[in-house]
Amino acid sequence: MALQGTAASQPQPEARFADVLVPRHITKAFTYLVPLSIAQRIQIGSLVKVPFGQSVLEGVVISISSHLAPEMTSTSLKTILSLVEDRHNTTISPALLELSHKIAQYYVAPWGQCLRLLSPPSLISPTRYIATQLGRTALETGTCPEPLRPTLQRIAHRASGILSSTLQPTQHGHALRAVDSLIERSWINPILSNAGHIQTRKRQRIPLTEPEQQQTLPHAVVDTSQPYGIDPAWRAHLHQCLQADHMKKIVLQAPWQQRIGRLAEAIRQVRSHNRSIIVVCGETAKARWLTQVLASLTGLQIDFAQLPHSPQRLDHRQGPTPSVLVGTRSVIFAQLDSVGLIWVEGEEDSALKEPKEPRYHARDVASLRAKEDHAVVVLASEHLSLESNFDTEAEVHRVQKDIALQPKIELVDLTKESRGTLLSHNLRSAMRDALKCKRRILLFLNRRGYARTLICRDCGWVPRCPSCTVALPYYREAGSLTCRYCGVAEQLPDACPLCHATPVSPVGEGTERVEAEAHHLFPHATIVRLDSDTLHRPSTARSLWERARSGSCDILIGTQALFTQEPLPQHHVVGILQADSGLHVSDFRAAERTYHLLVDAASVAYPASAGGQVILQTRLPSHHAVQALLSWNPHQFYNEELIARRLLNYPPVCHIADLTVAGHDTVLVEEAATRWGANLQRQTSVEEHLVVLGPVPTLGKRLRGQHHRRLLVKGADPDLLAHRLRDSVESMERQYRQRQIKFVVDMDPVESG
Description:
Shape: globular
Pfam family, one: PriA_C
Domain Primosomal protein N C-terminal: 652-749
Number of strands: 31
Subunit structure: Component of the replication restart primosome.
Strand content: 15-25%
CATH class of the largest domain: Alpha Beta
Binding site for Zn(2+) 1: 456, 459, 496, 499
CATH topology of the largest domain: Rossmann fold
Oligomer: single chain
Helix content: 25-40%
Cofactor: Zn(2+)
Number of helices: 19
Structural class: alpha/beta
Strand order of the largest sheet: 9-12-13-11-14-15-10-16
Mean pLDDT: 81
Low-confidence stretches: 1-14, 120-126, 169-173, 192-225, 308-320
Distance between the termini: 40 Å
């Protein structure tokens, strides 16, 4: 695609043309003239600076040619300004470029947006140029050459300088070239930063071996005497997989000690083949901990990768390519040579799904990259996702738990307890006995706050968020009703605003109320609560986690936040207060998520032989998620859940896409969503087996006052589904281009409620 703009001078016969992709919401590349000065050095994957509209952007060359398309003329083209040569990495490998193109195709996203995966923008300030005293003197004395004067004047005009992205070409040449000359003369200074620049992920690493950086990693107890489960059969099978000249996919279901042992063995084997390893985790804290553990177990340098959140991180991006790189989902795009293993730890973690365009899932991208690199990909977890558990392309390896080493689980049917029971008689009794013996207690409830909401017992009034329309949870400590979607806070009402009855009553329980109840029952016990409310301040979070890990508290209370970092120390009593609370949401994965959390909580308890017990409170004792935990039989859960998914036609039986229409005009949003759904249904053939549901309103945060409507599309063939959606979204964007309506496609969403 030709970029319209200022005509370039007539090129010499040796001139070539390059298609350049820029990191914007743009589907196609733009064609530029290649200047003779870089013609011998430019290649596919080169990072280049190009004029784009009224600014200068960095882009990636995706093709080079000596001929133009018939409909183009060289006089209509702009010229590439320069190669990017001021950093360690100045090219993106063809394999990663191809990977980004596949992601764009499957996740129905513009290819330009996918460049951000390979070239993340920095989180610090954009590059800014500031005039020096020498530069200002050159302007005052008239010693500044005329070609440089307009650029220097513009920079000197503002005391704070100007952003590089706002520089425009001048009649005497491009401002960017003028900037280079001004810097050489010390007439301006650049303030080092990276926003708007393309930074390849090869440099985003923190070596564990550097003492300064090691201090930034959180405390972790690494006991190398633990039974980390190095299995000779695993070693032999892995050796066989590494000999293959194509991708091998392994799904590993095992307790965390056995997974870590197998990962350490895999790292040693892959390094013996002189190949690199990528380890992907959903959470940063868990990735940091895993970095330390693997360094202790393997004796190798293990590098922790992350974006440069602060300037001091920038010094650690130089140096040789790491052989073992551990990080969160973005590490899957690290530019490493000869990748032999990609290990996805906790493959079911929803944090592996990118929430912004192109909304990729790192688990699935790992398989795509492994195909490109002819590598082994391992999807590992103690409780697999249904997609991985029934993956027909993978070899499934299971390490069963030893039932003799599991805790005793006692079920308490809350339907037979008094109404409003939070801690049952059996749980209170077990807690009392444990405290007498100085034993640790963990109470798990996956709902923060004091109560789910308030209700007027006379007229049924419930306080709702004015923007999101959801019921407002009650926070007793803050004395407020605060929306969990948009953060709006309302004062606690003295009486019902409708019928004026008093008082309004709290409904449902949260961890804040559990803490209050525990303090009331056991006033001398030390209690720590871990949830997103207590962990939002880093300094407080470090202290709370330290107390939880060291076992210095008698009672630990928390939500799923308990399981986002390193494994917790074992506890003698684990109370699961409302095992079925996660089942009452409009998400087809509700049972799966509930089962995963129940397994995580129960696994914290000591074995029954060591006095470990789990007291599981529920109003749905016959639910298959509860029954599977009671028998420690994951097959029971997966088989029954698969039957339900087949009946309702949900993954892994099919693929789904979540479509969102957003805009400020409610009527226009409703019209566009209805038209989108009708177009999809009308254009779908019988053979495609596409099912379109909706549109329906979206609950949750209303960004910038926008209204949303959602559709859900199901299809058996993911590539066919993506192709159909890509055509439809391009058509809808053309129809509503001037009407401020946004169309969003989320393939394989992890949240569908």
